[in-house]
């Protein structure tokens, strides 16, 4: 079962993101980015990837808290939030809507890659690679929270944190791939501990 977003079947199909498509597409992007930034030293590469990854975790938190849960007063605004995130809260176990569709994410990724490259050249490719690895990690953790019965302890803490957001306190626990930012910004539910 899935929440229908568009009447047009072709447009509706563009909003689905099956994991068997997601993994090879984003793995290819990450490999291409890694190859593109190889002339850098190992230390610079690791540092840039780590910074990019950490920036992603903050981006994830801010987008989820302030965009995906924004309370628009207009009907258009409410439909926009439902389209980008509200449908997921309506049916959290929908395997085809646990990750953003490629029709949205690829143009954003290409634009961000181009912008970072234009601003800082090849050095920024490693940073963006870390940012993208963070995004993929986030999406896979999010998918796993809703679809897989993993029992590894660190994952179970993230899963509990996220499912509390869905089923108990939707105005708390906005981070998915970490609980750090919810602690920093005091949006972590006391039930998460």
Overall description:
By secondary structure, this protein is mostly helical. It has one domain (9-148). Helices cover 67% and strands 0% of the residues. It is built from 8 helices and no strands. The chain has helices at residues 9-13, 19-36, 42-67, 75-90, 102-120, 123-147, 153-167, 180-184. The chain is globular.
Topology:
Elements: H1 9-13, H2 19-36, H3 42-67, H4 75-90, H5 102-120, H6 123-147, H7 153-167, H8 180-184
Helix pairs in contact: 2-6, 3-6, 5-6, 6-7
Keywords:
67% helix, globular, mainly alpha, 8 helices, 193 residues
Ranges where pLDDT stays below 50 over 5 or more residues in a row are none
Q: Sheet bearing the most strands, described? A: none
Fraction of helical residues: 55-70%
Report the structural category: mainly alpha
Quaternary organisation = single chain
Average pLDDT: 85
The sequence of SSEs as H and E is: HHHHHHHH
Radius of gyration, whole Å: 17 Å
Q: Short description, anyone?
A:
With 193 residues, the chain is mainly α. It has 8 helices and no strands.
């Amino acid at each position: 079962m899935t929440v229908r977003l568009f009447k047009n079947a072709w447009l509706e199909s563009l909003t689905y993101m099956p994991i068997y498509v997601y993994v090879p597409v984003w793995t290819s992007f990450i490999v291409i980015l890694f190859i593109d930034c190889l002339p850098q030293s190992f230390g610079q590469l690791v540092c840039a990837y780590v910074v990019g990854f950490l920036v992603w975790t903050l981006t994830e938190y801010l987008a989820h808290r302030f965009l995906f849960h924004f309370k628009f007063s207009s009907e258009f605004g409410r439909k926009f939030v439902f389209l980008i995130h509200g449908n997921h809260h309506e049916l959290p176990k929908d395997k085809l809507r646990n990750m953003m569709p490629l029709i949205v994410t690829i143009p954003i990724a290409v634009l961000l890659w181009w912008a970072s490259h234009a601003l800082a050249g090849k050095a920024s490719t490693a940073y963006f690679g870390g940012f993208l690895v963070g995004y993929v990690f986030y999406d896979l953790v999010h998918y796993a929270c809703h679809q897989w019965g993993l029992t590894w302890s660190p994952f179970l803490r993230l899963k509990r944190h996220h499912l509390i957001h869905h089923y108990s306190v939707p105005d708390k626990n906005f981070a998915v791939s970490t609980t750090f930012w919810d602690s920093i910004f005091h949006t972590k539910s006391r039930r998460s501990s």
